[in-house]
Amino acid sequence: MGRGRVQLKRIENKINRQVTFSKRRAGLLKKAHEISVLCDAEVALIVFSHKGKLFEYATDSSMEKILERYERHNYTERRLVATDPESQVNWAMEYNRLKAKIELLQRNHRHYMGEDLDSLSLKEIQNLEQQLDTSLKHIRSRKNQLMYDSISELQRKEKAILEQNNMLAKQIKEKEKTMAQQVQWEQQNQGPNTLSFLVPMPPPCLKMGGIYQEEAPEIRRNELDLTLEPLYSCNLGCFAT
């Protein structure tokens, strides 16, 4: 004989209610996983306990994508019935939906910042850690790509500057060579006589009295003549005495 039908009503005993909640929650999550695998369906399950603790399950497409798809679907249906006089109710539902979405985003943001983690289970914390690791890998990959692009740009600029410097140095050498050839050509056309003015003349040598060296021999000769005559007369007088 089969088991009788159990009447559905609230369990008054707190312990029995908690045990039943844990069992039924585990069975519900299992059934959600089974239907997602067997039927290839996208399943999103959200459960809040009487203490406000969150339990959720979502397929590989993640909870956010399923909720966005659900919102788009509802928005399309609401547009079809926009002429309904009950549009005020629709706006109230839209307000509640957006409010719930904002609360979900705020809660996820707090979790990503490492806050309000007491309500999470070990598995949820592990999932959160995995999400953060994946995000950190993407951030580091993007940073490395930006650094590689910056280094490549600097190397390209360096190469362009080196090429410009080599070109300028080559132009300077060609200009110097042209100027040297032009000076040599002018010297050959002008001849040796016209180049004598280019040879620096030695400065005239001066004596102590400011007399040029070229006039010095005759002046010295006159001075010797003047000095010898008194000496000669003096010697003759001495011999005479």
TrEMBL record:
<keyword id="KW-0238">DNA-binding</keyword>
<dbReference type="InterPro" id="IPR050142">
    <property type="entry name" value="MADS-box/MEF2_TF"/>
</dbReference>
<dbReference type="InterPro" id="IPR002100">
    <property type="entry name" value="TF_MADSbox"/>
</dbReference>
<dbReference type="InterPro" id="IPR033896">
    <property type="entry name" value="MEF2-like_N"/>
</dbReference>
<dbReference type="InterPro" id="IPR002487">
    <property type="entry name" value="TF_Kbox"/>
</dbReference>
<feature type="coiled-coil region">
    <location>
        <begin position="95"/>
        <end position="174"/>
    </location>
</feature>
<protein>
    <submittedName>
        <fullName>APETALA 1-1</fullName>
    </submittedName>
</protein>
<dbReference type="GO" id="GO:0045944">
    <property type="term" value="P:positive regulation of transcription by RNA polymerase II"/>
</dbReference>
<dbReference type="Pfam" id="PF00319">
    <property type="entry name" value="SRF-TF"/>
</dbReference>
<keyword id="KW-0804">Transcription</keyword>
<keyword id="KW-0805">Transcription regulation</keyword>
<keyword id="KW-0175">Coiled coil</keyword>
<dbReference type="GO" id="GO:0000977">
    <property type="term" value="F:RNA polymerase II transcription regulatory region sequence-specific DNA binding"/>
</dbReference>
<feature type="domain" description="K-box">
    <location>
        <begin position="88"/>
        <end position="178"/>
    </location>
</feature>
<dbReference type="GO" id="GO:0046983">
    <property type="term" value="F:protein dimerization activity"/>
</dbReference>
<dbReference type="GO" id="GO:0003700">
    <property type="term" value="F:DNA-binding transcription factor activity"/>
</dbReference>
<dbReference type="GO" id="GO:0005634">
    <property type="term" value="C:nucleus"/>
</dbReference>
<dbReference type="Pfam" id="PF01486">
    <property type="entry name" value="K-box"/>
</dbReference>
<dbReference type="InterPro" id="IPR036879">
    <property type="entry name" value="TF_MADSbox_sf"/>
</dbReference>
<feature type="domain" description="MADS-box">
    <location>
        <begin position="1"/>
        <end position="61"/>
    </location>
</feature>
<keyword id="KW-0539">Nucleus</keyword>
